# Entry
Amino acid sequence: MTDTPPHGRTKPSMADVAAHAGVALGTVSNTLNNPEKVREATRRKVLSSIAELGFVRNDAARSLAAGNSTSVGLVLADLGNSFFVDIARGAERALRRHKMDVLIVNSDVDPDREVHNLELLDRSRVAGIILAPLDTALAKSPHPENRATPTVLVNFESPSLAYPGVTVDERHGGALAASHLIALGRRRLLFVGGPRFLTAVNQRWEGAEQATAAHPGASIEILETRGVNIRHGRDAGRQILARGPGTYDAIVAASDLVAIGLIQILNEVPGFSVPSDIAITGYDNNHFASESAIPISTVSQPGEEMGAVAADLLLERIADPAAAARSVTLEPRLLPRTSTLGEMWRRD
Amino acid sequence: MTDTPPHGRTKPSMADVAAHAGVALGTVSNTLNNPEKVREATRRKVLSSIAELGFVRNDAARSLAAGNSTSVGLVLADLGNSFFVDIARGAERALRRHKMDVLIVNSDVDPDREVHNLELLDRSRVAGIILAPLDTALAKSPHPENRATPTVLVNFESPSLAYPGVTVDERHGGALAASHLIALGRRRLLFVGGPRFLTAVNQRWEGAEQATAAHPGASIEILETRGVNIRHGRDAGRQILARGPGTYDAIVAASDLVAIGLIQILNEVPGFSVPSDIAITGYDNNHFASESAIPISTVSQPGEEMGAVAADLLLERIADPAAAARSVTLEPRLLPRTSTLGEMWRRD
DNA sequence: CGCCTCTTTTGAAGCGCTTCATTTAAACCA
DNA sequence: TGGTTTAAATGAAGCGCTTCAAAAGAGGCG
# Structure
């Protein structure tokens, strides 16, 4: 009945607000962006007009005019993987301190979508991009060596070191697991994981191998799997049983999921048990690693910290795009639990 | 040394491309948006200039000028919860068919951040928003009844039905679980979950209660917990043991995590086992529900379908914002597994 | 009261694009 | 070949904002 602003129909612009408040366009802009430049009375007038009209600033116009953006894009390889969610959380935490927002795009393990998402963010003119690919997918990117948008890599090293990046020392992680088992008195180790062409898997294996080699009397073999999911762990478990229980007294699994699969199969054998007969370590500190029936000793990747460090590197890069790319390597941490320590370890 | 375009320095604009190709600005635009209006030869010239200069269209400018956007915002309550990731996947699948992109923002269970994220997307002038809140958080939104951006709700019903929405029939899910247990011959049921003020939990309980009431001879009690994580399941398990094993012969857990916790505790008791002594159902079809040592019978929420339906509703709304809000309720599905069927059920 | 300084406010230019009324070139037909 | 259609290309207007030089207003002081 009245002529109150229509309900969310046409979105009011700054000009509408200015007219309604009886001030100039620039004053509205200042009220929002440089309030200290606007007299108290004026500011109040403007703010109440904004409220009354339900004005919402158009960020597309803002960033076009200002030539910068306050959002950062985060390209994640797989939202189903909690490691990437941790990265997102860490990045968000760090960026929120600088009043920046995070837009996440999910590539869902598909390299084509990763490229598409990268392009999407380029077009959107976000302030910067944090790219967390799955292994070697970046190679497929169209402008791998020279992206216009400031970019930081997580979990994968730029072959040319053209980008700043955050990685975790996978070799050290593998070594940590093997050393832990050896320290517990185990001698006949087996590494379970694959495929080997996955950089992370291969480095974990190399680390485990080296650590074992450094210890006379200990030996390690490898059982290559086709993936690192629970299913692959179960398959591997059956193969191990076929080789005869007692062939190995410890397993370094390439992932927590593999470890869970192994335990499910091995624990089915009467009179055989984890960890007394075979101690097992996982990798990733998957949420369920600590929650499963037999809490799994694991190597923890500092996902949140990686995200936070990546955010910091990105902010540096945005501030000075010309500076040399700085790379950070974080150390994984061993979290011993029941699957190696047995009853010595209790939850909580 | 040469004056080739500087490496990713200043981003070339359409005007640069036009100059380089020796055509008018509008022609470049047409090459990109209405190629059929441009002569073959011209188009090629433009395209090669684009490639040569490394031109990337500025979407902020595009959507400002065009007055529309090709991205949809997805506000997720908790990326750590695979249910929400499923929703994202479904929405993406549906929107990709219409060449629309999805930007995800994570509220991380914080209602304030949810509001902030909503505002962020409003400002970004995305084409529409799919909001998947955790329970009743929407009530905190500043303009709950009248958002300017087309919005669709997932997993939570708009109190005033002002928005289209997709929900799942939680009551039916609870009934499904209870009926299943009763059909297996169980009679002394217990519902474990909480807190009750969570709509979903309460409705699951109501459904279970009604289904049980419909069956003479069967009874159901409730054990309210403070949350629906594994920890809460373990706590509840200890309480149940304190009441004496045998008090109940079946449990309807409000979530898979609770079910896992319960099983961990109950299975520790010698001579007592799931499901022979107590059958247990979970809820959510969490990824680990089928992968845990005792695969858990569960009620599956069609997360991906919910996301896809939400996307369709949103597209409808974008096309005709004035149309009445349409709401869709999907039915959950019971997935019987070992935790109720025992050895009758085998993985795969 | 008048002059000078500091604070506010103004409004036009321009960010990079889409659109569309015009102009120009090509194609067709008698 | 001249006139008419149709296809292609042009370029100015304008999307909603930030910026900034310039104008206006407010104080301050002798």
